[in-house]
Amino acid sequence: MSLSDHMTRCPRAHDPERGDAARALFPEVDDDLALLVRGAAGSSPYLATLIEKEAAWLPAALDDPDGALEAEIAGARGHGPDGLAEALRRAKRRVALLTALADLGGAWSLMAVTGALTRFADAACDAALRSAIATQIKRGKLPGMTEDDIADAGGMVVFAMGKMGAYELNYSSDIDLICLFDETRFDPADFHDARSAFVRATRAMSATLSDLTAQGYVFRTDLRLRPDPGVTPVCMAMEAAERYYESLGRTWERAAYIKARPAAGDLAAGQRFLRDLRPFVWRRHLDFAAIQDAHDMRLAIREHKGLGGPITLPGHNMKLGRGGIREIEFFTQTRQLIAGGRDAELRVRGTLQGLSVLAQKGWVPEDVAGRLRDHYMFHRTVEHRLQMVQDAQTHSLPVSDTGFARLACLMDADAQDLRQDLTRRLSAVHEMTEGFFAPGKPPEPKTHDFDTSVLHRWYSYPALRSDRSRILFERLRPDLLTRLAGAAKPDEALLAFDGFLAGLPAGVQLFSLLEANPQLRDLLIDIVGTSPALAQYLSRNAGVFDAVIGGDFFDDWPGQAALADALAAALEPEPDYETRLDMARRWTKEWHFRIGVHHLRGLIDADTAGAQYADLARAVLVVLWPLVCDQFARRFGPPPGRGGVVLGMGSLGAGRLNAGSDLDLIVIYDAAGVEASDGPKPLPSRVYYARLTQALITAMTSPMSQGKLYEVDMRLRPSGNQGPVATSWAAFQSYQQTQAWVWEHLALTRAAVITGPDGLARDVEAFRADLLRHKGDPAHVAHEVAQMRARITAAKAPDTLWDAKIGPGRMQEIELIAQAGALIGGIPDRDVVAGLGAARDAGLIDDAGRAQLAAGYALCWRVQVAARLLSAQPLRIDNLGQAGRTFLQRALDVRSLDRAAETLHDCYDACDAVITAALNRYAKAPDAADHSGANTPDDTGRDG
């Protein structure tokens, strides 16, 4: 279809005579195309020259511009070495001319224009590289390579960087390239010969593209973006480049790789390199420290180029000056660097696409992104017109009225209107981006006479030892002190914040994040002033703050299944097992932190928090168990037989955890008669599952860079610590039917299969339910519970009134009665209230007793969950600050803690009386054997 069918505008001829001369060359074209040729040639000497040179080719190209473009690109890519340099220069002229006319006529969009120029650059690089590699192979300079290796350049890849990488080339762009080769394709002894050959090929490729001949040039090439260009060869081994980036790479290099793309040569090797470089470019935490780096880069460029000062149009640099293209690109890329490690959808190369995705994800307001997209397209269009005039690599606006008049003709605009539009747009871009990069002056702190000795010692803490962290903190400090001064008890709040700061190992990332997100400062002050335990957790895991600004921190709870899907999706791209385990830790900590914050701020109650902590732990096990099994199978083969299930016991099985809970687990496996695994290193089935279980424990508990996942307790397995760490299905059934103690049957009333093969999981649950129906002799169970209660009381007394778990009439004792009721009644329900109902039905307690214990358990649970959130140690009210006391009052729905203490005391006494009365009648042992002793778990205070 003809170009004239898509024209929406037409340039005017600044030099009518030259325009008319060009128009006269094409008497056969229609009026619209004739005017387009006249306006282009009359305002651009460069385009006028191209029109004259390509007069024979142009009419057919204008009749089918898309077909003509594809023909030139294909011709360039497929051209052989003979006459390549001349052929590429001719093709470049044609592509530049056709693209300019399609652009000036409005037939192609900005992205179509830049895409056409970029695709031709790809083709030219590929042809020049293959020609250069062919020469090296022909001369025997590439060890082991034959003509068959020319197709993928013998393992060499050319990375397009910057605008070429993002398909954003302009009319007179340099092309920024990084050339690497895959050293694994060569024997170590041949490495130096191969590298020398690739260096020669790179230089030959560059010369083919950039040497200025009578036919012009193809593209000016710039190879200086490679690692340490002052001392490294123009083509490097991938391994050496990766080592450099991992150890010495800077923020600007990270930003450069946002747009990096394999453009020529061994594209598969190039993709592998970018995949391996992903951790360097895309940090897993929200990298707000990149903002300062980007700001410093902007200032350094301005100073180097002499582009500071106010916006004045004559000579203003549309790329690097205030309000220019680079400011929009830096704004976009920095936002991508901040969050792209967490969200792969942000890892796009194009500036316009980047702004769109950032807006969709909530990182940039939609109206801001829309305005920046519009300004970017306008700026790039002006840039193209400036370069069209003389094919000069310029970004500067004209300094004369004549120059502005010529530019206005190419823009098909009035010169005065263009000046006003440029001023408005440059100012708007500068205003929108400068506030992001350069924070304003901090407010004066609210007046309060803080303890200066506390303020002075801050600079001795690890988080404030670097110059950069101190600079960032100095900007934050006035606002933080203002927020602390606004607390109910400022001096308490100051000491709480001091404790947080003292435990913080590093400060740059957190301080950068707080500076960019003022709402997080309120949350930080709230946490450190309310919950010492959560503040300590936060100081050790400051990265969890990332989740707060991720967009969904305050959304509804997703549930266990959605959590498991999200964790699996987060781990899936990472091939390394250890990296996956570390990522699982970070992911879990963020969700764990979220539950704590929601509870702290009254968004959820204790029951909801308990269910969410359990959902989270179960989701982690659901994802981690198959991961551990797959990793283990690589060495020892798949699990023999039917596999193994993970049984959650105690609070995990019941689906009620708190902030400090460990996980009680049992692993049950069914080898189904298979004696050993089938793998590179076969193991007997019993040994296989024992070591597999230990691998799960290690995966959960090993301290890594992100700490531990959970503490794991396996003591509820058959025979406790003396039994095998994994239990066979047959042995588990036999043990529970013939040898298990009553307390072990009580424990099964709260057991639940968390993960594992469905068939075995169904069998285990069916067996559990059937067993509970046949092991609940009322007299024997009640007697055993009475004995257990006596031993627990003798072994451990409650630390304080606020220790709601251990002690007469408290949570653990109520759970025992509920478990006894469930066992006596033979009900598989894991719920305490259901168990208390069964205890009533069995005559162990009456209706009033059931109601008292149910109400007492609810109160104890609220105290326990709140206490573990407030403090990792037994809660002591005297040590709580005002904010912590306020939270506790809200969590317990009381007006004063003194009144709450009285209520707790009365509750414990009342529940103790109900339990004592229920068990006293069974104080003497029945005729059955005394199964009360040594196999009871030894740590009755575990918070499982």
Automatic annotation (TrEMBL):
Domain Glutamate-ammonia ligase adenylyltransferase repeated: 44-275, 524-759
Highest taxon of source: Bacteria
Domain PII-uridylyltransferase/Glutamine-synthetase adenylyltransferase per the UniProt entry, residue ranges: 304-437
GO molecular function terms listed in the Swiss-Prot or TrEMBL record: [glutamate-ammonia-ligase] adenylyltransferase activity; ATP binding
Gene Ontology cellular component list: cytosol
ATP-binding listed as a keyword: yes
This protein's record includes keyword Phosphoprotein: no
One GO BP annotation of this record: regulation of glutamine family amino acid metabolic process
Designated name of the protein: Glutamine-synthetase adenylyltransferase
Organism encoding this protein: Sulfitobacter sabulilitoris
